[in-house]
Amino acid sequence: MTRDTYFITTPIYYVNDKPHIGHAYTSIAADVLARWKRLEGKRVFFLTGTDEHGQKVEKAAREAGEAPKPFTDRVSQAFRELTGVIGLSNDDFIRTTEERHYAACQALWRRLVAAGDIYLGHYEGWYAVRDEAFYGPDELTEREGVKYAPSGAPVEWVREPSYFFRLSRWLPELLRRYDLPEGDPERISIAPETRKNEVVAFIRQGLKEFGEGSPKLDLSVSRTSFRWGVPVPGDPDHVMYVWLDALTNYITAAGYPSDPERFAAFWPADLHMVGKDILRFHAIYWPAFLMSAGIAPPRRVFAHGWWTNEGQKISKSLGNVIDPLDLVQRFGLDPVRYFLLREVPFGQDGDFSRKALIARNNGELADTLGNLANRVLSLIQRTCEGRLPEGRPTEAAAALLEPALLAADPRARAIGARKLEELPAVLTAYLDAQDFSGALALVFALVRGGNEYVTQRAPWALRRTDPAEMAAVLRDLHSALRCYATVLQPFMPGTMARLLDQLGVPAEARHFAALAAPLPAGTPLPPPSPLFAKLEDSA
Questions:
Q1: Full-prediction pTM beyond 0.70?
Q2: Is 165 found in the same domain as 20?
Q3: Distances (CA, A) of 516 to 149, 254, 373, 502, 520
Q4: Pairing mode, if any, of strands 300-304 and 271-275?
Q5: Which domain holds residue 472?
Q6: Predicted local distance difference test score (pLDDT) of residue 404
Q7: How many helices (H) and strands (E) would you count in the chain?
Q8: CA–CA separation, 19 and 4 (whole Å)
């Protein structure tokens, strides 16, 4: 059963350092989906925020000469400010140091206890402070006497009292839910497929090595070695494992446990957008916690790839961390948003290149979309007294009225769109699969077709030979531009708002359903102005 709500989340970002390009990438992708679903008419809840507990934060605060709370206040504010810089439309910004979150964590813990899935024991194993995670011996490498996790973080042997969660009880159920058919309400979708295969292989290897129900598969969910965290109910010597605390943010913000009506409207989450490095926590531990507590797990988890910088791995030691604030200041917000989701198929690793960003901006945004808008709107100004002309379908406009014909992707052809107003339905198939690059490639194939149509139909020549045909051609092109601007709003909201202004589209007619209602002939159009500036590589 479909619902009229849509709940999408970013990970909550860890406050041991300032924001970087990876944070912006995940957030912009989630923002595009949130904006898209609003244009579809859904009631959207888009959540982001900061993860502020744990040994790593406690250590970073100490090194900064601050207590944990003032430290997290300062760094969290940098992430809050990032939401404005990169143009996010988030509905909430959650901090795990908020009282509402403490209440949700402790309520969830009590339900895990009531389910019989929490027990007290001791844990010993290889622990990476940087990752806030334990690793098995087979996952480690050793260099110069130091052992390292797969993430590159050093590990140390830790032994301490700990509460455990009976993860072993839920692993078979997780495997069952991963394999349910699309549309089944119990299905947990993990994407891309390669990431799902990694998760399944990890679980099956554990079950094969230790056996179903083995306590060796259970998860340590409390710590006594540090104090900066959510206290365990009934045992103040323990604080909750930072990942149990952090993951709970999603239900906290959705209204758990204080607002059951809101929680019922938005939960389960439609999509958790995460980096591939934290997929295991979101696809295994989190749904297991929820199922134990009698709460539905999230519907879908998508793990995207990582960026390199001009071919090099990004790291503070190399001094090549990409600051999204500097990037936006230098190149502009919408070119950056467009590039990040156009350059690399979402889910794959990609290389950030300033030359590539400039090439996308100049070749696709300025020379293709900007050129089409300027040509069409300038012609309407000169030949139609700056007013929207009367229109009628023309045979030569087939490429504009049947956008699926330009698509090489079988998903677009299968939908069989035959009118411009059906383009959002074509693109929704891409967006629901988180194929941002594919969606943008299709739109810009259509925009290139629009430029070819202008050249072929030569409305400036028709002005002398057939003014009625000229008006129809310009009306076709105006309708096409309106459609392209409408579907590109989630990707480039500021620039597309300006284009829709120039097209004379009122604010209340910028959603997808409004495309079926033509603007009245005679609508006054303002003189066009450039949408995109050409960029130069000054590095």
A1: yes
A2: yes
A3: 55, 34, 21, 19, 12
A4: parallel
A5: 354-516
A6: 47
A7: 22, 19
A8: 33
